[in-house]
């Protein structure tokens, strides 16, 4: 182990895939977390030339390299104020991430799990029932769990619906997610007509729904930005409701800037235009 102390600054280990184009996953998490004055340490799970929403892409699975990569961090004696997990493409990757959390977590580490499994009522094509169950086991490691509505339904065996959720239904689903072991739940992206709702459920506190006025269209990468802002803000000491509000308002600004520039939906949001406003 290194005799040099590399831990004078707050760090978040961000475990996700990396896309060179399309502004999602690690490509948005790294600058967002850095802007919030925390060192972002990427642990890639796979490398894409551009994300899978495009008709063609290059892909390199990083699973076989992850453990050797992690071993070097152990030799350096790295400690993390936060661990943020995103898309994981196999049971083996989920197992590696569970080991990572067990090895690096201490009493000062905040673990944020974004269980990237699906959207619009359907799991992604790479996710079968077995992989969904494995992701369910990973959620037990989370201090903060941030599923979208589809993922919350998958994790709780709740029938999906695109809209028309009642507060009671959403709070019941959040309570079920809490039973996995995560004390703080955020169900993101609830369709509430002219608003987007985010359910905040914390053990010992009254649940609530924080609403943001809807602007523009749904775009890739917004969920990754949302999770990154929440992780960094909470590592910096913010309470969860404040962090969710900040994340929602920042994404609103990102989408508004993107609409003005007539950016294709596949290309993500122009967060660069408003990143300086994030603190």
Automatic annotation (TrEMBL):
- InterPro entries, alphabetized: PM/HMP-P_kinase-1, PyrdxlKinase, Ribokinase-like
Question: Which EC number(s) are documented for this chain?
Answer: 2.7.1.35
The enzyme's first-digit EC class, named in words, is transferase
**Gene Ontology MF terms in the entry:** ATP binding; pyridoxal kinase activity
Q: Does the keyword Hydrolase apply?
A: no
Q: Where does it sit, as one GO cellular component term?
A: cytosol
Pfam families, A to Z? Phos_pyr_kin (PF08543)
Keywords attached to this Swiss-Prot or TrEMBL record, sorted alphabetically, are: ATP-binding, Kinase, Nucleotide-binding, Transferase
The UniProt record lists the Pyridoxamine kinase/Phosphomethylpyrimidine kinase domain at 79-258
The UniProt entry, under NCBIfam families, shows:
PRK07105.1
Instruction: Name it.
Output: pyridoxal kinase
To which species is this protein native? Answer: Candidatus Lachnoclostridium stercoravium
């Amino acid at each position: 182990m290194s005799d040099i102390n590399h831990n004078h600054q707050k760090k978040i280990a961000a475990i996700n895939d990396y896309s060179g184009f399309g502004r999602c996953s690690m490509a948005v998490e790294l600058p967002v977390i850095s802007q919030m004055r925390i060192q972002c340490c990427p642990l890639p799970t796979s490398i894409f030339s551009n994300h899978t929403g495009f008709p063609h892409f290059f892909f390199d699975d990083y699973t076989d390299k992850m453990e050797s990569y992690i071993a070097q961090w152990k030799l350096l004696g790295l400690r993390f104020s936060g661990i943020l997990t995103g898309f994981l493409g196999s049971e083996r990757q989920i197992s590696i991430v569970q080991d990572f959390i067990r090895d690096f977590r201490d009493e000062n580490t905040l673990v944020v799990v974004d269980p990237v499994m699906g959207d619009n009522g359907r799991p992604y094509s790479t996710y079968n029932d077995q992989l969904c169950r494995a992701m369910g086991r990973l959620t037990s490691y989370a201090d903060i769990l941030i599923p979208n509505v589809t993922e919350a339904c998958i994790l709780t065996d709740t029938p999906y619906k695109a809209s028309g959720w009642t507060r009671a239904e959403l709070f019941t689903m959040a309570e079920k997610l809490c039973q996995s072991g995560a004390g703080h739940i955020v169900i993101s992206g609830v369709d509430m007509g002219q608003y987007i709702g985010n359910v905040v459920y914390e053990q010992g506190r009254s649940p609530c729904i924080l609403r943001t006025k809807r602007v523009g269209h749904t775009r890739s990468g917004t969920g990754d930005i949302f999770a990154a802002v929440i992780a960094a803000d909470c590592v910096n000491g913010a309470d969860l409701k404040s962090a969710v509000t900040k994340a929602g308002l920042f994404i609103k600004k990102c989408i508004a800037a993107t609409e003005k520039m007539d950016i294709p939906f596949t290309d993500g949001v122009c967060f660069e235009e408003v990143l300086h406003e994030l603190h």
